[in-house]
């Protein structure tokens, strides 16, 4: 299978046009590739936590997940957001199935922090590949919430970018991290440029210098991790310009590829 895992964060989801979902459905219907969506839900989780008066904090960009926070995160991501994405895909004529990492042990995880600083936060240890393949073979687009489960049946919250990378690794797929900007951008001599490609060394350098910051950090690091796991390639694409997805699939320049070694000069 030619598989493309698309990761969408909560802040991007609210901005995605109908044409984005139309493009994803077309990829499936026209047998261009098999799309899989993995999503987050940060802003809506924050809103729900505030409305329900549940306190939360972050450590190194990752949410500290208490049982109360996990319950809200699951309600928002596996419930509301997941079904909205499924509905949007089906509105464009597609067939989609919403699920979380808990279902059929899709994403089996272990705690990411043995010391417990991050609470009920995990990292994916195993992906139920055969189940995903069965869903795709039956004509549906999987839509995955990153709430996961451990071997003892306890739920764990997984960073969405990391969950998407794990799915891509397990399926030997391409990974597209969907953003609301054209890619990794940098101001060079007063002009904003989009990097065509970035290597591990360049990424770490740009994180240290502050060029890459905030929510882009877990995106580029997840892209790097997925490469080390043996997937074909990772790319950061602009979801507000769905034509970039088509360009990427066709082998044309779009977004920022994350590579182990530099292949081309950056695009100005």
TrEMBL record:
<dbReference type="GO" id="GO:0003991">
    <property type="term" value="F:acetylglutamate kinase activity"/>
</dbReference>
<keyword id="KW-0963">Cytoplasm</keyword>
<keyword id="KW-0055">Arginine biosynthesis</keyword>
<dbReference type="GO" id="GO:0005737">
    <property type="term" value="C:cytoplasm"/>
</dbReference>
<keyword id="KW-0808">Transferase</keyword>
<keyword id="KW-0547">Nucleotide-binding</keyword>
<feature type="binding site">
    <location>
        <position position="157"/>
    </location>
    <ligand>
        <name>substrate</name>
    </ligand>
</feature>
<dbReference type="InterPro" id="IPR004662">
    <property type="entry name" value="AcgluKinase_fam"/>
</dbReference>
<dbReference type="GO" id="GO:0042450">
    <property type="term" value="P:L-arginine biosynthetic process via ornithine"/>
</dbReference>
<dbReference type="Pfam" id="PF00696">
    <property type="entry name" value="AA_kinase"/>
</dbReference>
<comment type="pathway">
    <text>Amino-acid biosynthesis; L-arginine biosynthesis; N(2)-acetyl-L-ornithine from L-glutamate: step 2/4.</text>
</comment>
<dbReference type="GO" id="GO:0005524">
    <property type="term" value="F:ATP binding"/>
</dbReference>
<comment type="function">
    <text>Catalyzes the ATP-dependent phosphorylation of N-acetyl-L-glutamate.</text>
</comment>
<dbReference type="InterPro" id="IPR036393">
    <property type="entry name" value="AceGlu_kinase-like_sf"/>
</dbReference>
<feature type="domain" description="Aspartate/glutamate/uridylate kinase">
    <location>
        <begin position="3"/>
        <end position="238"/>
    </location>
</feature>
<dbReference type="InterPro" id="IPR037528">
    <property type="entry name" value="ArgB"/>
</dbReference>
<feature type="site" description="Transition state stabilizer">
    <location>
        <position position="7"/>
    </location>
</feature>
<keyword id="KW-0418">Kinase</keyword>
<dbReference type="InterPro" id="IPR001048">
    <property type="entry name" value="Asp/Glu/Uridylate_kinase"/>
</dbReference>
<feature type="binding site">
    <location>
        <position position="63"/>
    </location>
    <ligand>
        <name>substrate</name>
    </ligand>
</feature>
<feature type="site" description="Transition state stabilizer">
    <location>
        <position position="219"/>
    </location>
</feature>
<comment type="similarity">
    <text>Belongs to the acetylglutamate kinase family. ArgB subfamily.</text>
</comment>
<protein>
    <recommendedName>
        <fullName>Acetylglutamate kinase</fullName>
        <ecNumber>2.7.2.8</ecNumber>
    </recommendedName>
</protein>
<keyword id="KW-0067">ATP-binding</keyword>
<keyword id="KW-0028">Amino-acid biosynthesis</keyword>
<feature type="binding site">
    <location>
        <begin position="41"/>
        <end position="42"/>
    </location>
    <ligand>
        <name>substrate</name>
    </ligand>
</feature>
């Amino acid at each position: 299978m030619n598989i493309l895992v698309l990761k969408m964060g909560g802040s991007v989801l609210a901005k995605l046009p109908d044409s984005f979902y139309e493009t994803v459905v077309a990829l499936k219907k026209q047998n261009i590739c098999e799309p899989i969506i993995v999503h987050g839900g940060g802003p809506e989780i924050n809103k729900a936590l505030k409305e329900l008066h549940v306190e939360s904090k972050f450590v190194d960009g990752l949410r500290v997940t208490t049982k109360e926070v996990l319950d809200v995160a699951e309600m928002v991501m596996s419930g509301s957001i997941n079904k909205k994405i499924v509905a949007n895909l089906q509105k464009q004529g597609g067939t989609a199935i919403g699920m979380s990492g808990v279902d059929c042990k899709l994403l089996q995880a272990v705690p990411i922090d043995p010391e417990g600083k991050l609470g009920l936060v995990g990292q994916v240890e195993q992906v139920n590949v055969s189940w995903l393949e069965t869903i795709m073979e039956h004509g549906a687009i999987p839509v995955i919430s990153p709430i996961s489960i451990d071997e003892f049946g306890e739920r764990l919250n997984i960073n969405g970018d990391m969950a998407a990378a794990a799915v891509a690794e397990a399926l030997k797929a391409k990974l597209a991290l969907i953003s609301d900007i054209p890619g990794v951008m940098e101001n060079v001599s007063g002009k904003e440029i989009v990097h065509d490609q970035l290597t591990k060394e360049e990424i770490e350098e740009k994180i240290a210098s502050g060029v890459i910051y905030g929510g882009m950090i877990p995106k580029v690091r997840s892209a790097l991790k997925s490469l080390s796991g043996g997937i074909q390639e990772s790319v950061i694409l602009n979801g507000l310009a769905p034509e970039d997805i088509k360009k990427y699939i066709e082998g044309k320049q779009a977004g920022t590829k994350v590579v182990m070694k530099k292949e081309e000069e950056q695009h100005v």
